[in-house]
Structure formats: structure tokens, C-alpha cells
Amino acid sequence: MGKPLAQWFVFCLVVSLACACIDGHTLAMGTPYMQVFCVTGMAAFLAYGFYTVPHGIWWGQPWGAVAIDMLDGLIYALVTAGTFGWLWPR
After folding, report:
1. What does the mean pLDDT of the chain come to?
2. Euclidean distance between CA atoms 11 and 51, whole angstroms
3. Second label for 25, Cα 20 to 30 Å away, from 44, 57, 74, 87?
């Protein structure tokens, strides 16, 4: 359990770093919360939510399981977007 948890933590850090790079290049200091939330949320959802679509296409994972994984990715993306919006420099 320890190794997969550590790998998931590293994956979350990489996604957050990618979101920070995207936000840093597209948003200025003082950008309103909702704009930061939207940009970060979309980038994070692309990483957390859509990674599972090829599993349904190529590996035959049931589409119901893919949808549940995408819902899980949406929750992670919302938490990431909320954190970025909250901590974005004013």
C-alpha cells in the first residue's frame, strides 16, 4: 500500500505543478478567484479525469467504471482549483 500511495502523491504533485505552470503563464497577479478556479479546474480535470478514457477504449474497462473514475477526477480537480484560487496572489 505504501508504494502506490507514494506514487499517487507524486502524480498529484506533478499535476499541480503543471497547473501552476499553465496558470503562471496565462493569469496575472490579482486575477479574480473564479477565473483562477476555471483555468486551474479545467487543466486539473484534463489530467485527473480524462486519463481513464483510453482504459475504456483500448483495455475494455466498463464505461460505468470510466464514468466513476471521471467523477473522482472531477472531485480532485475541484479541490485543486479551489486551492489555487484561494492561494493565488492578490
Report:
1. 96
2. 12
3. 74
How far from 68 is each of 7, 10, 37, 53, 56, CA to CA, in Å?
Answer: 21, 22, 23, 11, 12
pTM of the model: 0.90
Q: For residue 61, what are the CA distances in angstroms to 8, 12, 45, 47, 72?
A: 20, 23, 20, 18, 16
Please give the Cα distance from 84 to 16 (Å, whole number).
9
Amino acid at 69: D
Task: HSE, CB side, 13 Å, CA atoms: give it for residue 72.
Answer: 8
Q: Which of 48, 43, 45, 52 is nearest to 22 (CA)?
A: 43
The domain in which residue 56 lies consists of 2-87
Cα angle: 24, vertex 26, 31; to 5 degrees: 85
